[in-house]
Protein backbone atom coordinates (compact mmCIF):
# COMPACT_ATOMS: atom_id res chain seq x y z
CA UNK A 1 0.00 0.00 0.00
CA UNK A 2 1.21 3.46 -0.86
CA UNK A 3 -0.18 6.93 -0.62
CA UNK A 4 -0.87 8.23 -4.09
CA UNK A 5 -1.21 11.91 -4.84
CA UNK A 6 -2.49 13.88 -7.80
CA UNK A 7 -0.54 16.45 -9.84
CA UNK A 8 -1.12 19.08 -7.12
CA UNK A 9 0.15 16.83 -4.34
CA UNK A 10 -3.31 16.19 -2.88
CA UNK A 11 -4.42 12.73 -1.78
CA UNK A 12 -5.70 10.66 -4.68
CA UNK A 13 -8.78 8.47 -4.44
CA UNK A 14 -6.67 5.74 -6.09
CA UNK A 15 -4.53 5.55 -2.95
CA UNK A 16 -4.68 2.21 -1.10
CA UNK A 17 -2.81 3.24 2.03
CA UNK A 18 -5.83 3.83 4.24
CA UNK A 19 -6.51 6.94 6.29
CA UNK A 20 -3.92 9.67 5.99
CA UNK A 21 -3.66 12.15 8.84
CA UNK A 22 -0.91 14.25 10.44
CA UNK A 23 1.05 12.91 13.38
CA UNK A 24 -0.79 15.09 15.89
CA UNK A 25 -3.42 14.48 18.52
CA UNK A 26 -6.65 16.13 17.47
CA UNK A 27 -8.92 17.87 19.97
CA UNK A 28 -10.96 15.23 21.76
CA UNK A 29 -8.54 12.38 21.02
CA UNK A 30 -6.46 10.67 23.69
CA UNK A 31 -2.69 10.97 23.81
CA UNK A 32 -0.57 7.83 23.82
CA UNK A 33 0.15 6.39 27.26
CA UNK A 34 3.90 6.74 26.69
CA UNK A 35 3.49 10.44 25.89
CA UNK A 36 1.35 10.98 28.99
CA UNK A 37 3.93 9.26 31.18
CA UNK A 38 6.84 11.21 29.66
CA UNK A 39 5.01 14.52 30.19
CA UNK A 40 4.19 13.67 33.82
CA UNK A 41 7.81 12.68 34.47
CA UNK A 42 9.01 15.96 32.95
CA UNK A 43 6.71 17.88 35.33
CA UNK A 44 7.98 15.83 38.27
CA UNK A 45 11.60 16.73 37.40
CA UNK A 46 10.87 20.43 36.91
CA UNK A 47 10.91 23.15 39.51
CA UNK A 48 8.49 25.49 37.67
CA UNK A 49 6.27 25.57 34.61
CA UNK A 50 5.64 28.21 31.95
CA UNK A 51 2.55 27.95 29.74
CA UNK A 52 2.87 29.93 26.51
CA UNK A 53 0.00 30.54 24.12
CA UNK A 54 -2.38 27.90 25.41
CA UNK A 55 -5.88 28.12 26.85
CA UNK A 56 -5.33 24.69 28.47
CA UNK A 57 -8.70 23.74 27.02
CA UNK A 58 -7.59 20.16 26.56
CA UNK A 59 -7.58 18.02 29.67
CA UNK A 60 -4.16 16.61 28.77
CA UNK A 61 -2.55 20.06 28.95
CA UNK A 62 -4.58 21.31 31.92
CA UNK A 63 -3.81 18.32 34.12
CA UNK A 64 -0.05 18.86 33.67
CA UNK A 65 -0.35 22.39 35.08
CA UNK A 66 -2.63 21.05 37.81
CA UNK A 67 0.10 18.50 38.62
CA UNK A 68 2.63 21.33 38.88
CA UNK A 69 0.29 23.24 41.21
CA UNK A 70 -0.15 20.16 43.42
CA UNK A 71 3.65 20.03 43.71
CA UNK A 72 3.64 23.70 44.74
CA UNK A 73 5.64 24.79 41.71
CA UNK A 74 5.58 28.39 40.53
CA UNK A 75 3.34 28.67 37.46
CA UNK A 76 3.72 31.24 34.73
CA UNK A 77 1.04 31.75 32.10
CA UNK A 78 1.58 33.87 29.01
CA UNK A 79 -1.61 33.87 26.95
CA UNK A 80 -3.74 36.55 25.32
CA UNK A 81 -7.08 34.93 26.18
CA UNK A 82 -8.54 33.08 29.09
CA UNK A 83 -6.96 29.95 30.53
CA UNK A 84 -8.89 26.99 31.90
CA UNK A 85 -8.65 26.87 35.69
CA UNK A 86 -6.29 29.83 35.98
CA UNK A 87 -7.93 31.16 39.14
CA UNK A 88 -6.99 27.95 40.94
CA UNK A 89 -3.41 28.08 39.68
CA UNK A 90 -2.82 31.47 41.30
CA UNK A 91 -4.73 31.00 44.55
CA UNK A 92 -2.58 31.91 47.53
CA UNK A 93 -0.30 34.38 45.75
CA UNK A 94 0.21 37.50 47.83
CA UNK A 95 0.09 41.07 46.56
CA UNK A 96 3.83 41.44 47.18
CA UNK A 97 4.63 38.52 44.84
CA UNK A 98 7.48 39.56 42.55
CA UNK A 99 6.58 36.89 39.99
CA UNK A 100 8.84 34.19 41.41
CA UNK A 101 5.87 32.43 43.02
CA UNK A 102 3.71 32.68 39.91
CA UNK A 103 2.68 35.11 37.23
CA UNK A 104 -0.14 35.61 34.73
CA UNK A 105 0.56 37.79 31.71
CA UNK A 106 -2.01 38.63 29.04
CA UNK A 107 0.38 39.82 26.36
CA UNK A 108 1.66 38.67 23.01
CA UNK A 109 4.43 36.07 23.33
CA UNK A 110 6.58 37.82 20.71
CA UNK A 111 6.70 40.89 22.96
CA UNK A 112 7.52 39.04 26.18
CA UNK A 113 9.71 36.05 25.27
CA UNK A 114 12.77 37.96 24.04
CA UNK A 115 13.07 39.63 27.46
CA UNK A 116 12.50 36.32 29.23
CA UNK A 117 15.32 34.75 27.21
CA UNK A 118 17.65 37.70 27.96
CA UNK A 119 17.07 37.14 31.69
CA UNK A 120 17.75 33.40 31.73
CA UNK A 121 20.71 32.45 33.92
Low-confidence stretches: none
Spatially, the strands of the biggest sheet line up as: 1-2-3
Overall geometry: elongated
Order of helices and strands: HEHEHEH
| Rg, nearest Å | 20 Å
* Helix-strand makeup class: alpha/beta
- Arithmetic mean pLDDT: 90
Instruction: Provide a count of the helices.
Output: 4
Q: What's the number of extended β-strand segments?
A: 3
- What's the N-to-C terminus distance? 51 Å
Strand content: 5-15%
List the helices and strands and how they pair.
Elements: H1 33-45, E1 49-52, H2 59-70, E2 75-78, H3 86-89, E3 102-105, H4 109-118
Parallel strand pairs: 1-2, 2-3
Helix pairs in contact: 1-2
Walkthrough of the structure:
Helix content is 32%, strand content 10%. It contains four helices and three strands; from the N terminus they run H-E-H-E-H-E-H. Strands 1-2-3 form a three-stranded parallel β-sheet. The radius of gyration is 20 Å and the shape is elongated.
Amino acid sequence: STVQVDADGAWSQLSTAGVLKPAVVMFGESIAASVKTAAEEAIDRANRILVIGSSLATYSAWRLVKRAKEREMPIGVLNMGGVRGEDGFFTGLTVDNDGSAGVRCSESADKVLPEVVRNLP
